[in-house]
Amino acid sequence: MSGEGKVVCVTGASGFIASWLVKVLLHRGYTVHATVRSLKDPNKVSHLLALDGSKERLHLFEADLLEENSFDSAINGCEGVFHTASPVSLSPSATKAELVDPAVKGTLNVLGSCVRAPSVKKVVVTSSMCSVMYKPDPINSTDVIDETWFSDKEFAEETKQWYILSKVLAEEAAWKYAGENRIDMVSLHPGLVIGPFLQPIINFSSEVIRELIKEGKDFMCSPIFNRYVDVRDVANAHIEVFEIPSASGRYCLVGETMHSSQVLKIIGQLYPSLAILEKYKEDLPIVPIFKVSQEKVKSLGINFTSLEVSLKDTIECLKEKNFLSF
């Protein structure tokens, strides 16, 4: 087992990606220090305590993104830190302060704790495709997006896309701080992460799939429905960039780019009883779509799960946890 004898920290461990990351790390033999906002909240901790290996090798810590030094005890003694904690919301009512401050200050607080812990060898930051591809010029179907692309922060500010801005500014701050403090850091940029979820409450991207099924074309125009990746592939990529010494810089994580109308078509074929194809048959255009390069991430040995499998597993999980019935 690759992680035997190694201690790592996962921040924001109760979240969708982080829960899977903790699960796979435990499976690989790692000892995991996991931070959550509240140890008293069963929605944050019950699913983590139920994971195989948790009794022997999972240690939970309370930490707050906005509180300086609050990650020190969790990170102390770890050789790897996976920083996944960051607020997620695309709600129109979410404010700049609610999203940008915890993302930027939280990232700097976690990196500060890493500098104070001489045991830390590598830091993996979970960013997003939001910090790669948000620009004022429309993306063409001939474009291939890769790790050299950066989102336009002025455009995110002008258009009041606070979640996107939070990801751009947090990544920018992280690279600057890592450079100044000689931290070996890697950033991962997943698209819309789907697949089964371990936590008891529905996460943002699973809700996106649920709403796509329920509301369909009301959501079709949003570009967020164009880039998909399975949560299990994202968890594996985090561990690979930590374990492979040569892994460095940024990695785009997108298994498939596809317009939401095509996604609905796949869901309709998987679940004929949903009658999606009847409902939208006049409105399912084949839309040419951009590509996201997989060249760099494939060098880690990551093979992406097919979109059909990811969608089926997402929907089965939504049904099983009573978030969707049909």
Task: Characterise this structure.
- By secondary structure, the protein is an alpha/beta fold.
- It has a single domain, classed as 3-Layer(aba) Sandwich (Rossmann fold).
- The protein is built from 14 helices and twelve strands.
- The protein has a seven-stranded parallel β-sheet with strand order 3-2-1-4-5-7-10, sandwiched between helices. Strands 8-9-11 form a three-stranded mixed β-sheet. Strands 6-12 form a two-stranded parallel sheet.
- Strand 1 (7-11), helix 1 and strand 2 (31-36) form a beta-alpha-beta unit.
- Helix 1 (16-27) packs across helix 10 and helix 5 packs parallel to helix 8.
- It is globular.
In short:
The protein is α/β, with parallel strands linked by helices and 326 residues long. It is built from 14 helices and twelve strands. 42% of the residues lie in helices and 15% in strands.
Q: Could you tell me the CATH topology label.
A: Rossmann fold
The helix/strand series, from N terminus to C terminus, equals EHEHHEHEHEHEHHEEHEHEEHHEHH
Cα(first) to Cα(last) distance is 41 Å
- The chain-level mean pLDDT equals 91
Instruction: Examine the secondary-structure arrangement and name the CATH architecture.
Output: 3-Layer(aba) Sandwich
Output the CATH homologous superfamily: NAD(P)-binding Rossmann-like Domain
Question: What is the number of beta strands?
Answer: 12
| Percentage of residues in strands | 15-25%
Q: In angstroms, what is the radius of gyration?
A: 19 Å
Helix content: 40-55%
Kindly give the count of domains.
1
Query: What is the spatial order of strands in the main beta sheet?
Result: 3-2-1-4-5-7-10
CATH class reads: Alpha Beta
Structural class: alpha/beta
> Tell me, what's the shape?
globular
